[in-house]
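Board notes (copied after class):
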Amino acid sequence: MTSFYLRNGDDYVAQESTIGPWGKELQHGGPVAALLATRIEQAAGADGATTRIGQVALEFLSPVPVATLHLTTEVVRPGKKIALWSVRASAGGRDVARMSAWVLATAEGRSPLVHLEDAPPPPLPSTAVETYFTAVPRFPYGDALEWRFTKGHFAEAGPATVWARLRVGIVEGETISPLARLLAMVDSANGVSAELDVGAYLFVPVNLTVTASRHPATEWVAMDAETSIATDGVGVTRAHLYDERGRIGEALQSLFVERRR
């Protein structure tokens, strides 16, 4: 595995490494999130020098197949200091995901540093996990990242703190942006902090919102994730996000939960 996608103009061919735990024909949300954010960064020129993305909101409009994704990008609210961009992914002529992103102008020294370095990041373990969910066969997306748990495990129920780094690229031949590095991991928050047996229940994230006070400055990124679920089958996963310097942002997922048939 060398990358999640191969590019042909506005088309991105999903590779085996995008396959998640729900079936060989479906992509994990992490590669999709990283790809869509990368496309907005490229279209908006948000390279971190004078502008960068401060928040992304990703919505899954259907399960995303392991197929060619056609991306369409537009600026919704233009502006020199604050702009809103969006990108839509379609497969076989049907929209499967869309992302909006706020692109903000930056200037070093414009504001003081507040709270981001109040607490140190979680410890980074020296050993990576070798197994995932006990009830789910091994899947390529899991192998596309190296996972190291400070607290919890894929196979343990409850809150978890995990570090990860990419073993593959996002798009073949393209540099991985710091934000894409983070987003490739974050959609796994509901899985690492699962409160229910993955063999007995589905808990599907229908969206992902990530707010980043700053983008990762290191190869390793971490999330401290926790899931709560109501009795009517709706849940929420929240995660604090870190790099090796400290906290960098927050993530939120809404979950659809039901027992497997």
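Comment from the instructor: The CA atoms of residues 55 and 211 lie 4 Å apart. The helical segments are 29-44, 140-143, 178-186, 189-192.
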